[in-house]
Write a structure and sequence with these properties.
The complex is a heterodimer. Chain A is of the alpha+beta class. Chain A is 30% helix and 25% strand. By secondary structure, chain B is α+β, with helices and mostly antiparallel strands. The chains are: A alpha+beta, B alpha+beta.
């Protein structure tokens, strides 16, 4: 697991505040006596690291893990329902005029400011910059200002940045988007800053690198009160 | 949820698990992807399905705080870091306790293939 070190840090934090915590492979878990069991120890809560896509790909190897989820034998964080907001097309729901009634005017205003225009690729008309556009021709004609990505991808896989993609590759991706769930999104300006970088020869150089920010969100305790 | 899955095109192999309702909250933790521009942040994705990085951020902050260069910087600038792990633990334990369970054994379950 590429991010195992992150899991070890999280595990150590739970242990530091008094919880018994183990890193366990979901394929090695069992159900015994109505409890989910990992490494021979009963489990009350799973802080999940395996994503749902990986889990269903290995479903045959994870039956006890999935049985525990289905039967509520342990608390799972996050639940598999988080898969919905994880989807790249979820941002289409936030910005597509078809769903505008789901938000208050204040919420819509905030979304317009902080979320780029996003649509599921489809043969349809939609709104862009105050005008109605035919989506597929628009995406092909305005490649430079757009990004295409598979709705269910993660880790930047298969993301096509318009002005870094050959037109024929772009057009083929648009066609893929008509058969499978893809989204098109306004290309956001990506800031760059100069950072020191360890070169292959062991020297330290300076190079411009893209800078993004990744704030964490934790549901407030007040949610269920 | 079924209609949402249909709109999003969620594969049926996943949708049948998404349709199960283990009770709220559906999303306790997320990591957002954003770029900062002159007009503020623009968020391009939400990572809710097993978001990584809660541990890395806090550890990196500790490493930076010890660097002579950063200590020098902090002498002339107001620097504040809000650690993520206490909020993470607090939220996870709250999610656990609200179900009425009390045992103190919390496993963390990584995938073999992992993700970034």
């Amino acid at each position: 697991v590429k991010t195992r070190a992150d899991q070890e840090i999280v595990c150590a934090r739970f242990e530091a505040v008094g919880f018994d915590c183990v890193l366990a492979d979901p394929r090695a878990m069992e159900v015994s006596g109505g409890r989910l069991v990992a490494n021979g120890r009963p489990v009350d809560l799973v802080y999940r690291r395996a994503v749902l896509t990986e889990i269903v790909e290995r479903e045959g190897q994870m039956q006890p893990f999935l049985e525990a989820y289905r039967d509520g034998l342990a608390v799972f964080v996050n639940s598999f329902r988080c898969r919905l907001s994880e989807d790249k097309a979820f941002f289409a729901i936030l910005t597509d005029e078809s769903f505008a009634s789901l938000m208050s005017p204040e919420e819509s205003q905030l979304v317009r400011r902080i979320v780029p225009w996003t649509r599921r690729v489809a043969e349809r008309k939609t709104r862009r910059g105050g005008s109605e556009v035919d989506l597929v021709p628009y995406v092909i004609d305005h490649q430079a200002g757009l990004v295409l990505k598979p709705a269910h991808g993660y880790g930047g896989r298969s993301v096509l940045v318009g002005d870094e993609t050959a037109p024929e590759t772009w057009a083929a991706a648009v066609q893929d988007g008509l058969r499978e769930p893809w989204v098109v999104q306004e290309r956001v300006h990506i800031p760059e800053e100069v950072f020191p970088l360890l070169e292959d020869d062991g020297e330290v150089g300076l190079a411009p690198l893209k800078v993004n920010v990744n704030p964490f969100f934790v549901t407030a305790r007040t949610w269920a009160r | 949820v079924g209609a949402l899955c249909a709109y999003l095109g969620t594969p049926e192999a996943e949708a049948r698990w998404v349709r199960l309702d283990p009770g709220p909250p559906d999303v306790l933790l997320s990591r957002l992807d954003a770029f900062l521009g002159p007009d503020g942040p623009r968020f391009i994705e939400i990572n809710s399905d097993a978001p990584a990085g809660f541990g890395y951020g806090d550890r990196m902050a500790e490493v930076f705080a010890d660097l002579p260069l950063f200590r020098s910087f902090a002498e002339t600038r107001r620097v504040r870091y809000e650690p993520s792990l206490p909020a993470l633990v607090d939220a996870v334990v709250w999610a656990w306790r609200r179900t009425g369970r009390r045992r103190r054994r919390l496993p963390s379950s990584p995938s073999r293939t992992g993700r970034t």
